[in-house]
Design brief:
The chain contains six helices and nine strands, in the order ββαβαββαββαββαα. By secondary structure, the chain is an alpha/beta fold. A four-stranded mixed beta sheet has the order 3-4-5-6.
Length: 170
């Protein structure tokens, strides 16, 4: 069904979007979220508290402006929960070091491909100098697609195999 057209909402503007053009959209249109950032020596309990206050957002661990690691809910569950991780220990003991990153001018398609290939739910975004510029989450991409094709999304049955017995409405 390539080439189908839907309505895409970008800020206060509305434009027509095809499924093909959606994949080539730049990441800056998908997520303008300011990332949570912490130094490698930040105490684990402080980093965890910040993640909780932000509703589970990932924490980018940066040395200056450079991303050196990421802490996600998955990291907390796998590396800290049920283990004797001291709350005063540095966040770098729980982080995933040297995470994959995306350039600021990368596309939604690039993000989807990297997330799929690596099994990532969150990816740091860096500028042309390699400094932290943001973070993109799978949720951001899903919300963006839902906004781009509201009629298609809202008209899907709750279960894809479900067929309506009779049309609804008058």
């Amino acid at each position: 069904m390539s080439g189908e057209v839907g309505t895409k909402s970008l800020g206060n503007t509305t434009e027509r979007a095809s499924r093909a053009s959606l994949r080539s959209e730049k990441l800056k249109a998908v997520s303008t979220r300011t990332p949570l950032v912490a130094a490698p020596d930040t105490p684990f309990r402080d980093g965890l508290r910040r993640m909780q206050q932000a509703g589970g957002d990932p924490l980018l661990v940066c040395d200056g402006e450079r991303v050196v690691g990421i802490v996600t809910e998955r990291d907390v569950l796998r590396k800290a929960l049920g283990k004797q991780v001291d709350g005063d220990s540095p966040i770098e003991t729980v982080m995933t070091p040297d995470p994959q990153t995306l350039a600021l001018d990368a596309t939604v398609g690039d993000a989807m491909e990297l997330m799929d290939r690596g099994g990532y739910r969150n990816l740091p975004v860096v500028d042309e100098e390699g400094n932290v510029a943001g973070v993109v989450r799978q949720q951001d991409i899903l919300e963006y697609v839902a906004e781009a094709f509201p009629q298609e999304i809202l008209n899907l049955p709750p279960r894809p195999h479900q067929l309506m017995e009779a049309p609804e409405g008058a």
